[in-house]
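User: We ran a pulldown and think these components assemble together. Before we commit to crystallization trials, I'd like a predicted model of the whole complex to look at. Sequences follow.
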Amino acid sequence: MKTDSILEKILAAGHLAVTSECGPPRGALPDKVKQKAELLRGCVDAVNVTDNQTAMVRMSSLAACIFLRQMGLNPILQMVTRDRNRLSMQSDILGAYSHEIDNMLCLSGDHPRFGDHPMAANVHDIDSVQFIDMVRVMRDEGKFQGGEAIDGPPKMFIGAAANPFADPFELRVARLAKKVKAGVDFIQTQCIYNVDKFAKWMEGVRDRGLHEQVYILAGITPMKSAGMARYMKNKVPGMDVPDELVKRIAGVPKEKQADEGIKICIETIERCKEIEGVNGFHIMAIEWEQKVPEIVEQAGLLPRPSVN
Amino acid sequence: MQNFEPVIVAFCCHYCAYTAADMAGSKRLSYPPNVKIIRVPCSGKVDAIHLMKALQKGADGVYVAGCLDGDCHFKTGNIRAARHVDSVKKLLDEIGIEKERVEMFSMSAGMGEKFAEVASEFTEKIRKLGPNPVNRTAFAEARQAVG
Amino acid sequence: MITAERKPMEELTEYVRPFGRILLVGCNECVTVCAAGGRKEVGLLSSALQMHFMKEGKPFEVNELTLERQCDPEYVEELVPHINQVDAVLSMACGCGVQEIARRYKEKPVFPAVNTKFMGASESQGIWAERCQGCGDCVLGITGGVCPIARCSKQLLNGPCGGSTKGKCEIDPGVDCAWQLIWDRLKALGKSDLYENNIPAKDWRSGRGGGPRKIIREDLAS
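Assistant: Here's a predicted model for the assembly, 677 residues in total across the polymer chains.
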């Protein structure tokens, strides 16, 4: 065991872990965080708190994680390299761990072009691979990136993202290999609609033995409507939504589309359970958090295991 | 603006437009005396600066007449000329001068009628547009004449 | 070369409005190549400025001159006989040139006529694209000759990110994904195993992170 993280303990014990997401509000109101987070209590093992997602300013991930911790939930601090240099990143990691936050996700971040501050400077002092390496060294060697000793190293359970659906496909397993080399402990994938492609990626992952070096949580997002399906297919980079899926959800009357989306979601989870190397699920029900308990239950993943 | 006689400069390529002008002459087709013809070996030789200087020195309208699409004796001179005309239009727009004061026309060597038509129509268009705003004295006088 | 684009006429006319006679100085190198500030562009801008003020009835004269470069003091010195004849200087060179003129002729207002853009190369006639950001520690030898700092929107040294789509960057379908280009090159060179190496975090001191930079050549400095 590398950390005291509950998420690590659950994965190490061989259970299928379940994580979800809580996006902080576009303002300084604590209740907005607490209400969203409360919806996830009891049905997930840990909750990602996003960091200025889609390059739009939100309450800081660190602050929101502290609220979750105080509520007795288990947050995963998401941090992007877009907005911070290595000083502030290490600083926030120390701050997070001091509040008993011991899971984090190391990401590059969406380009500001998409967000509400396209005029901002991009930092990108380091990239996500170097970020993973930096946190590992902080934890395992007790050293800052600059080399000096840390007085009270943060024992973070280190996560990252993987996208089996981005181009070029032939590089997507190798990119995971780079993150594993850097020391990542767990990864969450981009949300899966094309299960065949995901299975193919997992094949490549297994061929290289990576599934034995990193925990893999399959990303799942329920479709709310045919409109959402089409939007994700055409407007979101790095997303693979098969035509049959769009047709299936569009073929159902509007009032029934959300239910059909949940059905597809459960089917995807069941299919992914069968794929060797999948250690759990990361359910991203953005602005639909109330559906998560239902999804986890219908997928047969309740009750969540307790470990100490 | 009855007193306003526009000064028009026409850059005509030797192989097509200038020959068409000759044809107009020999066929006794009349076109306005306002049009001063400058013969160039190819319309592509007319650069943006020539068009700008013509206007700066007081011409009310300037046009380049070249060969029909695909017929340029030097292959793509007429295409270059059209691009120069477009870039001058943009520049004129930026400084608040009507971009209609510069134009590009195409014709073949035998199109005497076309030459005369272009010359007349362009002159009339510029007459309606009024004097080049750069000619401040002429402009002021014309404004006064209109009352 | 260094690329630039002329500033909008509106901005330029406002800079020079207070003056009666200006010196419009072009540069025969980079800005000539990208058709932004060479002899031709000096002629056009001079004409445009004069016509603009003639329209307003304001007397305005432009002296035109194009130097070989504006980033060497020896060339900037050539302006000495011209400088007292004018009220201000409008330079069509990149930011380097404008500053050198300002440095030499402290009493004369100097204005930039172009917006300096990037260090780039010509992709085809009339199209220039960013290639280098002067990071000071070139990695082109291990990335198959494609720069991840200048050409990756997130300057990833271990890319691509999850937004790479059909060889293009997520920010714009007109922008190539640098890591797709790097990967294609490494494959063509038979060096795809280089991809497996994790490139460590960059020391930005060789770049702008270390403050404004200087090169001093002991063997050349007088």
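The domain at 6-224+267-289 of chain A is CATH 3.20.20.220 (TIM Barrel). That may be worth checking against your pulldown data before setting up trials.

User: Thanks, that helps.
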